[in-house]
Amino acid sequence: MDRRITTPLTEEKVKELKAGDSVLISGIIYTARDAAHKRLVELLDKGEKLPVNVENSIIYYVGPTPAKPGQPIGSAGPTTSYRMDSYAPRLLEIGLKGMIGKGLRSKEVVESMKKNKAVYFAAIGGAAALMGKSIKSAEIVAYEDLGSEAIRRLEVEDLPVVVVIDSEGNNLYEMGQKEYLNSVK
């Protein structure tokens, strides 16, 4: 059964999500990859204001392709998440509650997620066109010079994701591996 959530992603909503949950996200989310994350953290280091408010927000690690005529965005498949691991804890500290990507996260990110009550979702790699169909509007809101890596404000409807790491640190990748190994004994 899919769980449906609508942004903003509050701490109360985060606590209800468990590793393995299938989730459909609707509302406003942001895109950012490593180049944008680096700039955001540099602003924080200088004590400056960010171009977007990440509090109770979700960042989707994606560099979408250009939109086809009549479409808000092109293909929008997830980027490998570890590329943001050196930056993610800083954003989690200021209220980021959700991240969408693919692949493993570092121990530091998982510990920061537990401390700051956040969740990591996996999007389906290889299904970029499907992911793009859930995006109803896309607008560049910062760092236009980064091209596909610019920060975009997306309005999404029923964006399909899976909770991989919940706010308690339960990790679907580890749980699935243990379950499999136990089943073959």
TrEMBL record:
Q: What is this protein called?
A: Fe-S-containing hydro-lyase
* Record-stated family: Belongs to the class-I fumarase family.
Any one Gene Ontology MF annotation carried by this entry is:
hydro-lyase activity
> What keywords does the record list, in alphabetical order?
Lyase
Fe-S hydro-lyase tartrate dehydratase beta-type catalytic domain residues are: 6-174
Q: What does the organism's lineage look like at the top?
A: Bacteria, Bacillati, Bacillota, Clostridia, Eubacteriales
Q: Specify whether Glycoprotein is a keyword of the entry.
A: no
User: What is the source species?
Assistant: Clostridium aciditolerans
InterPro entries this protein is in? Fe-S_hydro-lyase_TtdB-typ_cat (IPR004647), Fe-S_hydroAse_TtdB_cat_sf (IPR036660)
